[in-house]
Amino acid sequence: MNPRPAPLYAASLLLGSAACEAVRSAEVRSPATGAVVGTYALAEARHVEQAVSLAETAFRAWSALVAQERESRLRKATAHVRTKAAEIGRLMALEQGKPLAQSQAEVIGACDTIDYYAAEAVRIEGSTNPTEKGDLRSIVIRQPLGVVVAITPWNYPLALLSWKLGPALAAGCSVIVKPTPVTPLSPHAFCKALGEGGLPEGLVCFLTGEDVTIGQALVTHPRVAKIAFTGSTATGRTLMRLAGPLLKKITLELGGHCPAIVCEDADLPAAAKAIAYKAFRNMGQSCSSINRIYAHHTIIERLIALVAAEGRAMTIGDGIEPPNVDLGPMTTAGTLAKVQAHVADALSKGATLVSGGSAPTGLPAGGHYYQPTVLSHVTHAMLVMREETFGPVAPFMAYQDLEQAIQWANDTEYGLCAYLFTRDLGRTLRVSERLDSGSVCVNHVAVNTSYGPYEGWKSSGFGVELGRCAIDEYLHRKHIKIAVPACS
């Protein structure tokens, strides 16, 4: 086995010709080993003004292009990014902990999303309306909002960035990207590669920093038209309070506490594979992860055994060497501590530990590792059944009748995703309609697709990402009413 390399990648501020100016920097450390894997620039207030000015200038030129030209340039840019997928994916694996193969796939997937919206650029349509008089004409057109600020999280650093970049750029907006300081390296390399692929200077600016005042300055800047954010519900509420007085448009994709209902007629081996995949993939660090499983009392023990077996079979490593393990480390020490606290709380209140529940052996001591964990005999008094664990924990609770399971599934402030496993078509339709979630997956867990709208209900979000309708979040409607004189 080759020794693990530790390249030092420096993420600068992407501000046109000023990208290489000297600023203070901070370190990024690997969650697998604790070693320094790169640095990122710390933006200051003057950089916010610079970014907004550059983005404004770029917006005026970009929005003036015909839609076909925007589509062509976006596709050319993503084609270049695809040639960089190996190195960008490596940066993600180093800084976030996602296995290398999955990280590289995320780079390609982010390009696919932008390409999807590039095709939507030429489908931004208007309309005409009948009027009250014969000498009047009514035309409705849609125009881009302006400068957009995209604030992105660390669990899917590029996928969730592309959900914002794609529709914003296709609509004709410019974007200032502010990633989390936990994973700034791969988003920086991705945005830099888009520029190298031909996007105009200033169209995608990039600011990093630990200071929350940078984010606040961007959100409240009078010349920023729109905020797009993915992160915690608490932070989303803060951003909404900041943007509210300025009446800015805002899209929020926030936390979840996603239930899965498994009916007695479900295909149990298939359900177990799907549940284990969605509960444990990316170490459970996803807002759409399965957080609690309600299984019919007649099949719950068989299902638990199957899911536990799936979890035990998953390989864990640092993701770089070997590159094709199933799971890497958790990304931060804080998320690991929360998982440990939730499991300890459940066990102290009577839950049974079926599998996992501790760090795996034989891995670097400095890494944030945790085994896929299955808990049975849980109750709603336990934290895992009330709060988003954001870790690889699958807690199981038995239900007696389906009505009870639906009530339990809906008894949360969140409404992001829900999962249902049944072979009954009538039950599929009835239960799906009653689940208080923006997305429902039946007999699978592939919730995020470019063509399907992803909307958080209740405390899980505001506005929509993905799907054709997401581009509307970056457009104004304008009604043009014309008095047309008679022809002479």
**Proportion of residues in helical segments:** 25-40%
Strand content: 15-25%
- Mean pLDDT over the residues: 95
Strand order of the largest sheet: 13-14-15-12-11-17-18
Rg computed from alpha carbons, rounded to a whole number of angstroms: 24 Å
* Tally of strands: 23
> How many helices?
13
Calculate the terminal CA-CA distance, rounded to whole Å.
Answer: 86 Å
- Tell me, what's the shape? globular
Structural class estimated from helices and strands: alpha/beta
Low-confidence stretches: none
What's the main sheet like? 7 strands, mixed
Outline the secondary-structure elements.
Blueprint: E1 9-11, E2 25-29, E3 36-41, H1 45-64, H2 67-83, H3 85-96, H4 100-120, E4 127-129, E5 136-144, E6 147-152, H5 159-171, E7 174-179, H6 185-196, E8 204-206, H7 212-220, E9 226-230, H8 233-243, E10 249-253, E11 258-262, H9 268-280, E12 290-296, H10 300-313, H11 333-348, E13 352-355, E14 373-376, E15 393-399, H12 402-410, E16 414-415, E17 417-421, H13 425-434, E18 439-442, E19 454-455, E20 457-458, E21 461-462, E22 464-465, E23 475-483
Parallel strand pairs: 1-3, 6-7, 6-9, 7-8, 9-10, 11-12, 11-17, 12-15, 14-15, 17-18
Antiparallel strand pairs: 2-3, 4-5, 5-23, 10-21, 13-14, 16-20, 19-22
Helix pairs in contact: 2-4, 2-6, 3-4, 3-6, 4-5, 9-10
